[in-house]
């Protein structure tokens, strides 16, 4: 029997392009998003969810739907050199392009007639279709002793130096930009110190370069 999965809502995110999005949830705590549920859902659908600290968000990698998939991929954590099976990775290039993120639940707003779920620590592109939401249950799902394959520890962070632009930004936006750039969004195989990268985030275009373990933010301009 065939069944069609329909989206239940969409994500409003400061990440408006794929480049610069955190590669995993929780790595950029300042990345706050809103999950706007479709009009057919009211407060009954989220009743009791406010009592949980985190949620599992099931979504579609809509930004890569036309790029297909491969049984072997090159994870950034392996330097982009070694291939592993797609099902041993979190790659967005999957047979069904389904994603799963664990997000910190910051609040739920049902005052406007609809349902908006606010979360932080997101790794989601703006407009991402949401297909399901489930509460995170620590005693069942937290397994700190589990084998972690090639992702045994968090990747090292870059030092971030502001050369220009930060005086026009709010503290929250500065944290979002700094935390995102510190993750080193470059392709794993790319190390060109003189290259200038451009990332759009939160309505701003951020220009930066990376040399060694330091990222220098060169300019921040409104999009």
UniProtKB/TrEMBL annotation:
Gene3D superfamilies: YaeB-like. SUPFAM superfamilies: YaeB-like. It comes from the Bacteria. Residues 5-145 form the TsaA-like domain. PROSITE patterns: TSAA_1 (PS01318), TSAA_2 (PS51668). CDD domains: UPF0066. Keywords: S-adenosyl-L-methionine. This is TsaA-like domain-containing protein. It comes from Neisseria bacilliformis ATCC BAA-1200.
